[in-house]
């Protein structure tokens, strides 16, 4: 919980709400608990702009939502490999990731 609490505070100071995230842990050879996967990225979290948040509404997000929304419009079996993504979906998603980076890292 300390990892999440520190990240939440850091993001909040930069105008970002961490709407949800996931952490994956494992045990090393000495049975120490270790973080074993990416954490707090747009792939594993949903980041919302705090200034656009309204309870009960879905604010814009800095994550892969463009990809999710696009894939929901397709008729595919949701098995790997997934369908190719059009350039505009890739570009919109990359722009959201860059915006999250700017807000979280470059504006320190």
UniProtKB/TrEMBL annotation:
SUPFAM superfamilies: SAICAR synthase-like (SSF56104). Its EC number is 6.3.2.6. GO terms for biological process: 'de novo' IMP biosynthetic process. Keywords: ATP-binding, Ligase, Nucleotide-binding, Purine biosynthesis. Residues 2-81 form the SAICAR synthetase/ADE2 N-terminal domain. One of its GO terms (cellular component) is cytoplasm. Pathway: Purine metabolism; IMP biosynthesis via de novo pathway; 5-amino-1-(5-phospho-D-ribosyl)imidazole-4-carboxamide from 5-amino-1-(5-phospho-D-ribosyl)imidazole-4-carboxylate: step 1/2. The keyword Ligase applies. It catalyses: 5-amino-1-(5-phospho-D-ribosyl)imidazole-4-carboxylate + L-aspartate + ATP = (2S)-2-[5-amino-1-(5-phospho-beta-D-ribosyl)imidazole-4-carboxamido]succinate + ADP + phosphate + 2 H(+). PANTHER family: PHOSPHORIBOSYLAMINOIMIDAZOLE-SUCCINOCARBOXAMIDE SYNTHASE (PTHR43700:SF1). This is phosphoribosylaminoimidazolesuccinocarboxamide synthase.
């Amino acid at each position: 919980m300390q990892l999440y609490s520190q990240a939440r505070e850091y993001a909040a100071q930069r105008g970002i709400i961490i709407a949800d995230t996931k952490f994956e842990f494992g045990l090393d050879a000495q049975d120490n608990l270790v973080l074993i996967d990416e954490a707090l990225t747009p792939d594993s979290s949903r980041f919302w702009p705090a200034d656009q948040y309204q309870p009960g509404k879905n604010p814009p997000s800095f994550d892969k939502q463009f990809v999710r929304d696009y894939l929901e419009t397709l008729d595919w079996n949701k098995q790997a490999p997934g369908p190719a993504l059009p350039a505009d979906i890739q570009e919109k998603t990359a722009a959201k990731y860059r915006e999250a980076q700017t807000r979280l890292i470059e504006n320190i």
